[in-house]
Amino acid sequence: PRIINNICENGLFIAYSLEKNLIDGELIKEVAADLGFGVEDEEKD
User: Fold this and answer.
1) pTM summary value
2) Where are the domains of the chain?
């Protein structure tokens, strides 16, 4: 739970600072990478 809370909190902070109204997957991937978590892209068929 602590990890997801950190990702969400940082996502909200970044979205607010960039004046974004939508937090999308790309923003969350960026936040997770900044926190040191590897995020893999889904393969599409």
Assistant:
1) 0.74
2) 2-34
Within 10 angstroms of residue 31's Cβ, the number of other Cβ atoms is 22
Q: Tell me how far CA of residue 5 lies from CA of 1, 2, 8, 28, 44, in angstroms.
A: 6, 5, 5, 12, 28
Report d(CA 21, CA 36) in Å as an integer.
Answer: 25
CA-based angle 30:15:38, to the nearest 5? Answer: 15
Summarised one tens digit per residue, pLDDT across range 2-45 is 999 999 999 999 999 999 999 999 999 999 999 998 766 666 66
